[in-house]
Design goal:
2 copies of one chain form a homodimer. By secondary structure, chain A is of the alpha+beta class. The first copy, chain A, contains 8 helices and 9 strands. Chains A and B meet through strand 6, strand 7 and strand 9 of A and strand 6, strand 7 and strand 9 of B. Strand 6 of chain A pairs antiparallel with strand 9 of chain B. Chain B binds a DNA duplex (21 and 21 nucleotides) through helix 3.
Chain lengths: 239, 239
DNA sequence: GCCGATTTGTCCGTATGTATC
DNA sequence: CGATACATACGGACAAATCGG
């Protein structure tokens, strides 16, 4: 486990905040003290603090100190999307049993309209996959995935039934590093209604995302249509 | 304008990418070249690059180079929420005429239920404001704001009719630095329907946010209920 | 109001590690 | 293997904001 120093400090401080060693609204010890405690350089420590600030765990104040702004029960942490996370990882984190049903699996060539929607270049060979994903047997979302065919050799419907991400990462050694997302609300289509038990809702939450692998190549465009009851997206903004 | 070196480089590079000096999928010059061009240290340059990576403008690749992954017409930039942005800033950026109608303005004391929902401490004095916000005369969203009364002295219904943020920032010298958000989809309430012309939709996009000022004090909890047609939230994830 | 101590913010130069070519 | 390029880490310096006497 080759872990960077700043990452170790980051995790340690994060844990201490979560367990209450540093309480909500309290100030962390000054940088000078922490660098001594961790026996590291100021740069390494400051990088860890900066990551905690990105997570909205702390807020540094010029000339004053670093205040903890994380609080437990920050709304329940269940049923929440975070960062770049696959469906399976999400299920595991919430203690639910995931299952997937592949509804469609085909090769397509990227049309002009599709190019505009997805960001793939026109004429590119793509793999189109439609899947319904359930947790504990209840259908929660419909995935419409487009994979760059050249980047996913050996991807089959059987694989898609399991986890595409673990296939890409473990089999092909690909890493997903960056993902651009947009969230909208749309009227449910007949297809949505046939797959999801929408109950009183006539809308779904739609997350479109473009994902880039470690080569800086966009290899996936996904539109995920979520059941409103099974959708909560958390994020932090700073300026 | 006291601007940090890394920020100047960040803006310069960002502009060059947007105007096409560095094209999509192209590699930036290596760090060594860029530090020479900008006459700065490697640290300053790397910080700028790191910010561009956070914006999904570039993707650094170990041992290879830094590739541009931003592309123009990354879906239209209209009608899009970004970062910590007020309604007025958003309207101006999209060339629309904002207007606001205050529906309610009252002092309340934070109850146990409200404390759990908002994250304010029970018993805190709050200012509750309900506003309907329109663009070019069309109602787009209903805001339910709770402000920490002690942090917003002099806030009146008349001020709320204009911009609360510019009041807080310009009058009180407060800065909003960090904001935690969650996005969900909920059934429209009778109130939603009475304010927004929802048409075929029976749902709204709900953005809840907790905002912290420069003192690290949570001074605002907001629940904004958006018309589905007027809602698009963009974000970037990395891991 | 001033001054000095404390604390965070920015910046630099350098060294070493590691992945890619 | 060597050259290139990004990643991590250290130590030192000065600036800027805050606070207390």
């Amino acid at each position: 486990m080759p872990r960077a120093i700043f990452e170790g400090i980051y995790r340690d401080l994060k844990g201490k905040i979560q367990e209450g060693s540093y309480a909500y609204q309290e100030f962390l010890p000054p940088e000078s003290t922490l660098t001594e405690e961790y026996g590291c350089s100021r740069n390494a420590l400051r990088r860890a603090l900066s990551m905690l600030a990105d997570d909205a765990y702390v807020q540094p104040m010029h000339g004053r100190g670093v205040r903890v702004i994380w609080q437990r029960k920050d709304h329940s942490t269940q049923g929440v999307l975070e960062g770049v996370e696959s469906f399976g990882e999400y299920a595991r984190r919430n203690g639910l049993e995931p299952s997937t049903s592949v509804k469609s699996f085909e090769h397509v060539v990227c049309s002009a309209g599709l190019a505009h929607r997805t960001g793939f270049a026109e004429g590119t060979e793509l793999l189109r996959v439609v899947r319904v994903r359930s947790l504990d047997g209840v259908a929660r979302q419909v995935d419409h995935d487009y994979f760059l065919a050249s980047a996913a050799p050996g991807l089959t419907a059987e694989v898609a039934e399991e986890s595409v991400y673990s296939f890409l990462e473990e089999r092909l050694g690909m890493r997903i590093l960056t993902s651009r997302r947009s969230i909208t609300v749309q009227l449910a289509t007949d297809e949505d209604c046939s797959y999801l038990e929408l109950g009183p809702y006539n809308c779904v939450a739609v997350v479109e995302s473009q994902s880039y692998n470690s080569d800086g190549v966009m290899f996936e465009y996904t539109q995920v249509r979520h059941h409103p009851d099974a959708f909560c997206f958390n994020t932090v903004s700073r300026r």
